[in-house]
Design a protein that fits this description.
Blueprint: H1 4-18, H2 22-34, E1 37-40, H3 54-66, E2 71-74, E3 79-84, H4 88-98, E4 107-109, H5 113-119, E5 120-121, H6 126-132, E6 137-143, E7 157-161, H7 166-175, E8 179-183, E9 207-210, E10 223-226, E11 232-237, H8 242-252, E12 256-257
Helix pairs in contact: 1-2, 3-7
Length: 260
Amino acid sequence: MKSVCNIAVELIKYRRAHSSTASRWLREEMCKELKTKVLRLPPPTAHQEGHTDGAEVLSCTVKALKEGHVVALPTDTIYGLACLAQDSEAIRKIYDIKGRNGQKPLAICVGESQDIYKYCKVKVKEELLGDLLPGPVTLVFERSEVLNTDLNPFTSLVGVRIPDHAFMRRLCQMCGEPLALTSANISSHISTVEVHEFQDLWPRVALVVDGGPIGDQSRLGSTVVDLSVLGKYRIIRPGCALSSTVDVLEHKYGLLFLEE
């Protein structure tokens, strides 16, 4: 078996002839060494040589999650780390991988707006959910009794996402339960929009889904808004969709800003 040092030496030779693909080659070779799978998600419009079929990526990701692993994957805002929200041991793995403060909550991710009602006590109109989701917004509600008590046990609230990302929504649907979701980085470090930016985490996850560079490259993450109080809203994190979110909440549904 090749050592990582030998791989690095081979990279130097390889780069001279193939500099445009050298970094990707090194990442894939190192993942072989570290037993981490990297699967490239095909574009939504066409199958390209070198990309794994989308159905195969979904199948492999579902399998890894069902086996209790943490995976890295693309969303509509930044790359994330995910596990099954109902799997307490997997949740502990995410905190350990990120070096995350145990008092910082994880959001959940579901595939359809109807799923929100199972895990959250919703106090807004269904139409409001449809106006904001799928999209780069995390909505915070009071959690229901169905949700794993080991997920954010220090709060009665939970944030929920439906990313505007077909792979993520289909993944949640195939899992049949919510994912716990957080950014793919060491806690307090910059958010990531390409897989090579969190390469230091690869050895600690079972699977990396490479969806290419994330669209707007803003690194701001989703806008997080608390809707747990009837008729009011509170911005927890401005994120990348603040203006459009506030416009919907205030002008279309008449919600009032909740003072601290």
